[in-house]
Amino acid sequence: MENKTVDFLESVYILNNLPDFYRELSCTYTPHFDYKNVDNDSFSHIKNNIVVVKDIPSYLNVKEQSLPKNVKQVKIPYYSGYAINFEGVESTQGYLKSRFGNSSRYKLRRSVKRLENAFNISYKMYYGEISQKEYDTILEVFFKLLEIRSVEKGIIKNRNVKRKDFYYANMKSLILNKRASLFVIYNGDTPIDICLNLHVDNVVCQLIRTYDINYSKYNTGYIDLIKQIDWCLANNIHLLTFMYGAFYWKKRWCNHTYPYRYDIFYNKKSIKSISKSLIQITNHKLRHYLRERGYIDRFHNIKNSIKEKLHPKESLVVTTENIDYDKELELKELVDIYSDKYSFLRRYAFDFLFNYNEKEKDISLYSMKNNSNKYLIKGIKSKAILNIQ
């Protein structure tokens, strides 16, 4: 047996399998989740190597198999997880009031109203049923949006994008069996925000979230959260977890934190196994120490700042100039923002809809005569010039 790393959450949530090194599994928030393993000889194969089991959340209670005399287990705290615990929560608006001030709640309501006013918006949770056509369409858009969003964030190798085939092969059966769900915000027939969830009875784990960056002005990620809180309350969900990662939005939206841990199993009668375990244990404990004190975040911020200075992103600079609605301009031709040629204008057209409270169906976009860097965008009530630099 070589060194082995086991993803605990993936094994349990997706593969429906309790790793061999554990005898029993239960969940703090539901009595209807219970795994049992028969005794096995998995530990006998460790020999000169180690086994690392990562990402064990504290709301899942595990009991280990009986350890042989030569095998030692070390438990290492690693991440903090963030969640919404719905105990005592009676309504979405009541929960938002407990987490946000008047100004923030107003901005959230405005985002919802302007999104629904500007576009033909609908919301759908795929849980327990989904057609093959819907599944194929949603996942195709999902990974396309995830890749675009990763480029925007500067993530070169997104692990989830690389594992597209794995998710595609496993998620449909989980959705049909109510062990996973896809929450989708649609503009017409087009998904613009997609969230992949994993379910354990009345615990929901948000695994991957992404959205169409052309709709960034509308904060569709927050609208997604509001609608999913609605769904959770309507379906008696006890815990909605956003997993680990101390992002600012999680700290604002969540009312509950919990620890994750890593387990390391090694052969205490093998010098090689002991050495490998010491390296892993030291590395994980050091990273946990640095993360808890904010040093890792600071390091990444400095690294990203240096990277941006050395390799500045080449991006369009677009300014919007409001003009009198009755002013006549020399126009060249009508522009289709949904064509590949003019797709770079889509985000700015949608920003115009938000800023001027217009509707997608009512706007027109024109190129200008004698200036290829200017475009006129016109709605029912307002018009403006987009200056491309």
Verbal overview:
There is one protein chain. The chain has helices at 8-14, 92-99, 102-118, 132-153, 159-162, 164-176, 220-234, 248-253, 271-292, 295-310, 346-356, and strands spanning 4-7, 22-27, 30-36, 50-57, 60-64, 71-85, 121-126, 180-187, 190-200, 203-211, 239-244, 256-267, 318-323, 331-335, 364-368, 371-378, 383-388. By secondary structure, it is α+β, with helices and mostly antiparallel strands. Strand 15 (364-368) and strand 16 form a beta hairpin. It contains 11 helices and 17 strands. It starts with a strand and ends with a strand. It has 3 domains: 4-79 and 258-295, no CATH class; 88-237, Gcn5-related N-acetyltransferase (GNAT) (Aminopeptidase, 3-Layer(aba) Sandwich); 318-388, no CATH class. Strands 1-4-12-6-11-10-9-8-7 form a 9-stranded mixed sheet, sandwiched between helices. The chain has a 5-stranded antiparallel sheet with strand order 13-17-16-15-14, covered by helices on one side. Helix content is 36%, strand content 33%.
